[in-house]
From TrEMBL:
Organism: Oceanobacillus piezotolerans
InterPro entries linked: dUTPase/dCTP_pyrophosphatase (IPR014871), UCP030140 (IPR016947)
Pfam families in the record: dUTPase_2
Name of the featured protein: dUTPase
Length: 161
């Protein structure tokens, strides 16, 4: 995956959004952490992985992928906020269940909020990518869905979102 290209696209989108809302150069770290936690909750809800009390099936793959790339947007954006960039490294497949992996991502997100170090950022990024592997998303799926959602995010801004 060409993460550099995605960081550049994310920087342009964030800049566009900030300009549109009179927030250019504002510190949006806390807002973006909460936004990521909310997206994680939405993603978990679409998988229904933790709903042991329900027999309803999970949402379709495309819906889950769209939620997943919302999280990618905010993780990239958090890196830009702090001046950190994830670069490719070999990822071990997690042995955790989906539920355990979601909890690991939440934990990594809170650790990064408490201590916004580069190490904690990379940990968060890796946990999120491992969640993507568990959900069976290939890099090409993520790239395509990111591009699509990035465009939707511009259209929303232009329509007074
Ligand atoms: O600074 C920002 C703010 C929002 N988004 C994008 C990420 C998600 O794809 C989408 C979430 O919007 P809601 O659907 O949750 O409103 O907005 C950004 O990329 N950068």
């Amino acid at each position: 995956m060409n993460w550099e290209e995605l960081y550049d696209m994310q920087a342009q989108l964030d800049n566009y959004i900030e300009k549109n809302h009179g927030l250019l150069g504002a510190d949006l770290f806390q807002e973006k952490i909460l936004a990521l936690l909310v997206e994680l909750g939405e993603l978990a809800n679409e998988t229904r992985c933790f709903k042991f009390w329900s027999k309803k099936p999970r949402s379709e793959r495309a819906v889950i992928l769209e939620e997943y790339v919302d999280g990618i947007h905010f993780i990239l954006s958090l890196g830009l906020e702090k001046g950190y960039r994830y670069t490719y490294s070999e990822l071990e497949r997690t042995r955790m269940s989906e539920t355990e992996q979601f909890n690991a991502v939440f934990t990594a997100c809170i650790a990064f909020q408490m201590q916004a170090t580069e190490d904690n950022y990379i940990r968060l990024f890796k946990e999120y990518l491992q969640l993507g592997q568990l959900l069976d998303f290939q890099e090409s799926d993520i790239q395509r869905a990111y591009d699509k959602k990035n465009e939707i995010n511009y259209n929303r801004q232009n329509k007074g979102y």
